[in-house]
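Onboarding guide, step 5: your first structure request.
Type a short instruction followed by the sequence, for example:

Predict the 3D structure of this protein.
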Amino acid sequence: MKFNPLLTGCTLCLMLIVRPVEMRGEEILPKHMTPAAVKSIERGLAYLAKQQTAGGSFQTTQDGSTYPVSMTSLAGIAFLANGNTSSRGPYADQVRKATEYVLSQAQGNGLIAAGAENGRPMYGHGFSLLFLSSVYGMETDAKVRDRIAKVVKDGIQLTASGQSNMGGWIYTPGGGDEGSVTVTQMQGLRAAHNAGFTVPKGTIQNAVRYLELCQTPEGGIRYSYNSGNDTRLPISAAAITCLYSAGEYESPLAEECMEYVYGQFKNRKNGFQSGHYFYLNLYAAQAFYQAGDEYWDAYYPGQRDSLVKSQTSNGSWNGDGVGPVFGTSVALIVLQLPYKYLPIYQR
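The system replies with structure tokens like these:
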């Protein structure tokens, strides 16, 4: 189903706060959601909540101290994906504090980043646009909404002005282009558009063109335009979600990327294997879910069980060697897609 422009503002709020109904004392679970997955999600959310500092960030772990804005935004999205808002739900305090922290990191030029973010501030900028735009639709405090609006509008401008001549983005504004940062900016811009903010049409068109330029003979996407024909599976999966977000549901590039990514998934008996496993599944899950039941039914049950099984005793996942906040946030976003609380991830 294509994006419905009416799903903004208060409608987003209603979608975010309505929780699963109960019948005869038993919760009716969405398709493919199991009691074991629900328990795993509860443990993961409890772990994340314990990692949040009094100031709202997640700097208690290595990944949090290295990428504070990125990790806080991803953790915030994980709480939103469970149906929490800044005023409702068991993790309302965590959402509210995460929002305050991310807002506090907005710089005068529009960049949302805490210091250097390990030399890659545009990751945090993109994830924070996604998080703040998602929060905006259900925020009930008018003053906070105004603050979010100002930061998001400035952030959109920073992203637009930081786009390379080729149409992509890299770790710092205006420094060049590569696939992983490009898809982060595209999804952040789409979330902002969903929330009712104006996004320059040319910025999206140029970004789509950049992905087209980066397509390899296999049908997927390379790391960057000048990096040769080495297809990167995680970036190819991420590109699908961004193309869908840009309305390119049936474009040749989207279809060929899906054919490549789904082919890689089907040809591996134990699912995806990648050095960027969590990053890959963050975007592959969205791509398969948005593509329809044929893909989702083949992918999610196995991935669900794999994540439940690999969760550590303290409720976390150590994702891609980046750290437990990253891994836990990503695992929770993937596991909670059936809840349908965040429109940016929906069909």
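Each response can be followed by summary notes, for example: Residues 142-161 form the longest helix (20 residues).
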